[in-house]
Amino acid sequence: PVFWIVIPAAGVGSRMGADKPKQYLELAGRTVIERTLDCFLGHPRIAGIVVAISADDPFWPVLECAADPRIVRAPGGRERVDSVRSALDLLLPSAAPADWVLVHDAARPLLAGDDLQRLIDALQDDPVGGILATPARDTMKRVDGSGAIDCTVDRSTLWHALTPQMFRFGLLRECLARAAEAGWTLTDEASAIEAAGMHPRVVEGRADNLKITRPEDMLYAQWLLSQRT
Ligand code: C5P
User: Fold this and answer.
1) Measured in angstroms, how far is the CA atom of residue 159 from the centroid of ligand 1?
2) Contact status, residue 32 vs residue 63, Cβ threshold 8 Å
3) Domain spans in the chain, listed from the N-terminal domain onward
4) Which of 23, 39, 42, 74 has the highest Cβ tally under 10 A?
5) Can you give the pLDDT at residue 43?
6) What's the pLDDT score for residue 53?
7) CB of 79 shorter than 6 A to ligand 1
8) Are 22 and 16 in contact (CB under 8 A)?
9) Which pLDDT value is given to residue 157?
């Protein structure tokens, strides 16, 4: 099978409160997005990488990886899902419907090589695909609009959705188009597949595959990196 990587990297990162989008912050001497790309560039089976970048983004073109022939740039969109769709459109001439696409947030630079490999190994013969995920660790509550607890949700049925999310190119493109037509708000790829009545698999991944969101995440990510090297 052929594997393509899609990296949505067109967010502004407002929750970070930094002077540039979080994917361009430096994490132990290297930008977050370069670390994220490194997770895939070393893998022998990747056919190509598409990054979705905002049209007016001045930070991407100056990175060394912007000139890497294995990486192509697609225009970013208004929401994350629009950026992913834009990247998939760019792949259309090259990718076959049954090829695999792994969508991975630019803001997750700590994806471990063994997690990536386990995801691929677990799903590559699957008709649909699935996602890296990690079991919920806290006690989980359903809360109503007024802030009062309705009930406690059985934690053993709840998982945090991580990325990469790995689906067949043709199926993912179709399901995302259908979701856009219906006006649904999606925060990941799997929800588009679920909405079409399919059941993506979860593959248990490391909880430290964190998405850089708030300033304290940078400190935690720095510490995690120092522990790995
Ligand atoms: O904001 P959030 O952390 O959910 O973003 C997840 C990923 O989606 C980030 O890598 C961000 O750059 C990307 N994104 C995008 N286009 C948008 C919004 C977010 O590519 N319009």
Assistant:
1) 21
2) no
3) 3-228
4) 23
5) 92
6) 98
7) yes
8) yes
9) 96
Task: Mention the CATH class of domain 3-228.
Answer: alpha beta
> Global pTM?
0.97
Instruction: Name beta bridge partners: 161.
Output: 133
Q: Which two tokens stand for residue 29?
A: 């001497």
Would you say the CB of residue 186 lies under 6 angstroms from ligand 1?
no
pLDDT number for residue 14: 86
* C-beta of 9 in contact with ligand 1 (< 6 A): yes
The ranges of the chain with pLDDT < 70 are none
The CB of 211 under 6 Å from ligand 1? The reply is: yes
User: In the chain, what is the greatest distance between 2 CA atoms, to the nearest angstrom?
Assistant: 53
CA 10–ligand 1 middle distance (angstroms): 6
Q: CA 133 to CA 193: how far, in whole Å?
A: 16
**What b-and-e string marks burial along 106-116, b requiring 16 or more CB atoms within 10 Å of the CB?**
bbbbbbbeebb
pLDDT of amino acid 13: 85
Q: What is the pLDDT of residue 98?
A: 96
| 77 within ligand 1 shell (Cβ under 6 A) | yes
